[in-house]
Automatic annotation (TrEMBL):
<keyword id="KW-0159">Chromosome partition</keyword>
<dbReference type="InterPro" id="IPR036086">
    <property type="entry name" value="ParB/Sulfiredoxin_sf"/>
</dbReference>
<dbReference type="GO" id="GO:0007059">
    <property type="term" value="P:chromosome segregation"/>
</dbReference>
<dbReference type="GO" id="GO:0005694">
    <property type="term" value="C:chromosome"/>
</dbReference>
<dbReference type="GO" id="GO:0003677">
    <property type="term" value="F:DNA binding"/>
</dbReference>
<dbReference type="Pfam" id="PF02195">
    <property type="entry name" value="ParB_N"/>
</dbReference>
<dbReference type="InterPro" id="IPR004437">
    <property type="entry name" value="ParB/RepB/Spo0J"/>
</dbReference>
<dbReference type="InterPro" id="IPR003115">
    <property type="entry name" value="ParB_N"/>
</dbReference>
<feature type="domain" description="ParB-like N-terminal">
    <location>
        <begin position="37"/>
        <end position="126"/>
    </location>
</feature>
<comment type="similarity">
    <text>Belongs to the ParB family.</text>
</comment>
<dbReference type="InterPro" id="IPR041468">
    <property type="entry name" value="HTH_ParB/Spo0J"/>
</dbReference>
<protein>
    <recommendedName>
        <fullName>ParB-like N-terminal domain-containing protein</fullName>
    </recommendedName>
</protein>
<dbReference type="Pfam" id="PF17762">
    <property type="entry name" value="HTH_ParB"/>
</dbReference>
<dbReference type="InterPro" id="IPR050336">
    <property type="entry name" value="Chromosome_partition/occlusion"/>
</dbReference>
């Protein structure tokens, strides 16, 4: 049986009303963000262009347990769904949405985003620590292609060095199916593999990496040995 959400405290509710009233004068009318509201879970769907495709079921279960015990501590970010009247598309917060569904909740605390939702979603996802190397590389590539940005501009947006962005993009020179299978492999090992030209040596080293028999040191030694 799913655990019921905790009833809101009357004192907390009154305090939040005061805060909202005070904030009303501080938030400009043309702000990209609106005040929080409860959105029906059944009318929210993930963004199909979301760069992140893999969600660890154990992590979702853990987050669901935390939300069941402590409530939803951070609103999700939504934009209006052009294909469904009264519907919403997630801009940020898909893990919270999945956890709420896991708990059997019927609604989520949300904020409407009226700015560049695609850019906000990309940046939010690319700054997560649990993206796979493949998801990060494809997200950076998409950011550059869709926003006509340079690698230096992307580095500034993400708070990374230009070298880090360049190394991330280099991962896309590896076979796509290998990248999808390589989720458990260390990022620095994948970067070293991506430095190699396509051919028998790289194929052999990729196979060793997938088998768990390759470290960065061994890879460099293998390159020197030819």
């Amino acid at each position: 049986m799913s655990r019921a959400r905790k009833a809101a405290s009357p004192v907390l509710g009154a305090a939040m009303s005061v805060i909202d009233a005070a904030a009303e004068a501080l938030v400009p009318q043309d702000s990209r963000f609106r005040h929080s509201f409860e959105a029906p879970l059944a009318r929210i769907r993930p963004d199909p262009s979301q760069p992140r495709k893999q969600f660890n079921p154990e992590e979702i279960s853990s987050l669901a347990a935390t939300m069941a015990a402590e409530g939803q501590l951070q609103p999700v970010l939504l934009k209006r769904d052009p294909e469904l009247r009264g519907g919403w598309i997630l801009v940020a917060g898909e893990r919270r949405w999945r956890a709420a569904r896991h708990n059997g909740w019927t609604s989520l605390l949300a904020i409407e985003h009226e700015g560049d939702a695609a850019l906000a979603a990309l940046l939010e996802n690319l700054q997560r620590v649990d993206l796979t190397p493949a998801e990060e590389a494809r997200g950076v590539q998409r950011l550059i292609a869709e926003r006509k940005l340079s690698q230096a501009e992307v580095a500034t947006l993400l708070g990374k060095s230009a070298g880090e962005v360049s190394a991330t993009l280099r991962l896309l020179t590896l076979p796509s199916d290998f990248l999808d299978r390589a989720t458990p492999l260390p990022r620095n090992l994948l970067v070293e593999l991506a430095r190699l030209d396509p051919g028998a040596l790289r194929d052999r080293l990729m196979a060793q990496a997938e088998a768990g028999n390759l470290t960065v040191r061994a890879l460099r030694a293998g390159i020197e040995a030819g």
